Amino acid sequence: MDSAAIVDLARQALMVTLLVALPLLAVALALGLLVGIFQAATSINEMTLTFVPKLIFVGIALSIFGGWQINIMVDFTRSIFERIPALFS
């Protein structure tokens, strides 16, 4: 296996990581921003006000995007296993 193939594999791994993590991180970021603005406007500094909604909405996002995320990871794993014979030839 040459260095170009290793770089390509690393690039694909980073892309899969980005695709899998992005929906959940985007939901958590957007909700954190909204709750932060709400807390600044109302001067409420309750820690559970930030944690509980994020937990609920990230769970909802995981149930929505979970199947797609699993498919992305399975396809990537399958492509890695398909490359194994090329390592030994």
Summarize the structure in words.
The mean pLDDT is 91. The chain has one domain (3-87). 0% of the residues are buried. The protein has helices at residues 3-42, 47-87. The chain is 91% helix and 0% strand. Helix 1 (3-42) packs antiparallel against helix 2 (47-87). The longest helix has 41 residues, at 47-87. The protein has 89 residues and is an all-alpha fold. It is built from two helices and no strands.
Structural class by helix and strand composition: mainly alpha
Q: Beta-strand level of the residues, as a percent range?
A: under 5%
What is the H-and-E element order? HH
The total count of helices amounts to 2
Characterize the overall form. elongated
Low-confidence stretches: none
Specify Rg, calculated over alpha carbons: 19 Å
List the helices and strands and how they pair.
Layout: H1 3-42, H2 47-87
Describe the structure concisely for a colleague:
It is built from 2 helices and no strands. The chain is an all-alpha fold.
